[in-house]
């Protein structure tokens, strides 16, 4: 799902999917509205046994 500002530029994007082993992955990417580049990304992985891990990347290499 994408969020847009009043000028139609992408501000944020949230993606969610499940893997074959039952894990749930959610990514939240924030964009710079001035140049459209991603500024940060948070990836949360919830495993089927209840373990949750979260990684936040700011200004580094982001997942596609």
Describe the structure.
The protein is mainly beta and 64 residues long. The chain has one domain. The protein has no helices and five strands. It has a five-stranded antiparallel β-sheet with strand order 1-2-3-4-5, with no helix packed on it. The model has no long low-confidence stretch (mean pLDDT 91).
Short overview:
The protein is mostly beta strands. 0% of the residues lie in helices and 56% in strands. The protein has one domain (2-58).
The secondary-structure class comes to mainly beta
How would a crystallographer describe the biggest sheet?
5 strands, antiparallel
Please give the radius of gyration in angstroms.
13 Å
Tally of strands: 5
Query: How many helical elements?
Result: 0
Please tell me the overall pLDDT: 91
Q: How many domain units?
A: 1
Low-confidence stretches: none
Distance between the termini: 15 Å
Write the H/E string, N to C.
EEEEE
Outline type: elongated
Give the strand line-up of the largest sheet: 1-2-3-4-5
Question: What fraction of the residues are assigned to beta strands by DSSP?
Answer: over 45%
What are the key terms here?
mainly beta
Give the SSE map:
Elements: E1 2-4, E2 10-18, E3 24-31, E4 38-46, E5 52-58
Antiparallel strand pairs: 1-2, 2-3, 3-4, 4-5
